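Re-run with default settings, no changes from the original entry. Doing this only to confirm the output is reproducible before filing.
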Amino acid sequence: MRFEPVEGGRFVVTFRDVPEAITQGETIEEALVMAADALATVMDFYFEDRRPVPIPSEVEEGEELVALSVSMSDKVLAFNRLLAMT
């Protein structure tokens, strides 16, 4: 994820690999919580649309890694394997 400060002291969070996930927070801490939620929520869109979930790229300068929960990670891996077999 990438944090971008915006007017009013807020932070917008975007994800290079998952452009559908965009969120914001009043503070960095709130933006981190919102980022994890946005990323998990977007996974449902991929599942519903039967699109493979992108594998995370290496973290670049200015980015931070947001990890999915273990159960969501397992679900994503299983889902991608299932799609690859069809």
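The domain at 2-85 is CATH 3.30.160 (Double Stranded RNA Binding Domain). The mean pLDDT is 94.
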